[in-house]
Write the structure tokens for this entry.
Amino acid sequence: MSDLLALYQDIILEHNRSPRNFRKPAHISHEAKGFNPLCGDKVTLYLNVEDDRIQDVGFEGSGCAISTASASLMTERLKGLTLADAASLFQQVHHYLTQNSATSPLDPELGKLEALGGVRQYPARVKCATLPWHTLQAALLNRHAPITTEMETHADE
Amino acid sequence: MATWIQAKKTLDLKQHMGSIRMDFPILNQRVHGRPLVYLDNAATTQKPRAVIQAMAEYYESQNANIHRGVHALSEVATSLYESARETVATFLNAQSPSEIVFTRNATESINMIANIMGHDQIKPNDEILLTELEHHSNIVPWQFLCERTGARLKIIPIQESGDLDYESAVKLFGPRTRILAITHVSNALGTVNNLPPLIALAHQYGAAVLVDGAQAAPHIAVDVQALDCDFYVFSGHKIYGPTGVGVLYGKREWLDRLPPWQGGGDMITSVSFQHTTYAEPPHKFEAGTPPISQAIGLAEAIRYVQGIGYPAICAYEENLELYALRRLLETPGIQLIGQPLKRASIVSFVMEGIHPHDIGTVLDQSGIAVRAGHHCAMPLMEHYRVPATVRASFAFYNTYEEVDTLATALEKTWKLFQP
Ligand SMILES: Cc1ncc(COP(=O)(O)O)c(C=O)c1O
């Protein structure tokens, strides 16, 4: 069970039970859908960007605890960021989640998002955590075709 | 054949569990430091030593291509392969071994029929009947057929219990019904369909019936003549045999009438650049070098299962399943998906507020292998409005203690996710 507690940290479980920003905002400028065909996880991410800044963000969908908490923590963090900041946050988190936990240290700059790092010991679950982030990337590019974690396989390699 | 079986009577498998499990070398291992509890048998089953040995022996001393050489090894290999066909024919109670075609898996068997039916059997606006319970492999090939021919799919719905809605089914048949393609056992819910009335109805309308037996063959004694289906398909790897071999049973009159699927060696009697004549069934449908060692392995698996006997297997599995249902219902948060009248060793469930994927991860840490997902049955998941379920699927080598391990791990999962 000890490994499991690294994956399912309290903050993950809490965000899974009460996801933040789980709604469709009234004004939406950017939107993207993400899908993991292996487990059926679905997420739709909405951004409202004004003057190059993310003024509002919300998400809908259904997924496991990891993907739900990842989306919830992500939306919390995104509010107020510029588009460029959001894009670099994507890079930072993606790098962190897909690195081998043994060789790459925790990233204290990530703050609460660090809790997502538990997946690094669970190769089968990494895509659960990265799904909302890839959806963010698609939304920032205003890509309309839904993205899937199977496309992500190539991006991750 | 299992060496520990002596008398021809219905065995109480509970008393022989030690010997049975010793026949399956893979079961004796640890996963994440815990004894492996393998409850993903609907995905694929483990192989008894007899199967592994038969295949090793084939490669060590009998390997050759078949139907081709006049040399001794080729004759040995040909006779082993053809006797595997006889074993399958007897197993399904087919009228003749010529009704048994070896394929790659159940999926390929279905694709073959869906494909060659499109030649001249199916016309625009013809109807193909499926059920809401089908695995994607008994949906998508028929969608291909519809795209090619302009035929339409009609879907027999299920009741909340996960049993087919037989009243609605009756109304879906009509003069345009050409094919009923139906699973014998649902891989997602475990429902055992009551096939005879539907098959009789299909035949009244002149429709052909294909039964997907991928999940039935390991648990139920199949008699294709009693069922009177036109086609019956299953996969070797789900019935304790190797991957790479599947079976297509087809009534001889159908196999005579239908055109071949793939062209190549072994499926012809003569070839010239002007004209080719095809071999008789079943060879007409087996182009190229077939899965020889796999067919031999499958025959060995069937002998193993027959050695234990379906009466013993069914009795044991039914009791184990009842025990599992009872333990699951005692576990907090569990909601069963589907409560069919009759089920075959498959139990699907969800836990309130916990995603199946997370349950799968926690169980894996306890050494328990289950499937968490949509089970290649997305329309069915849609029906129950769940994205996925956890599925525990049993084989006769699973024990009551393993069910207890599952129940305990599920309780732990529940506790982990409570505030
Ligand atoms: C009911 C059913 N039909 C067909 C299949 C396809 O079997 P295979 O992948 O061996 O072709 C499966 C396998 O999961 C199944 O459960």
In short: Strands of chain A lie at 30-36, 41-50, 53-62, 147-148.
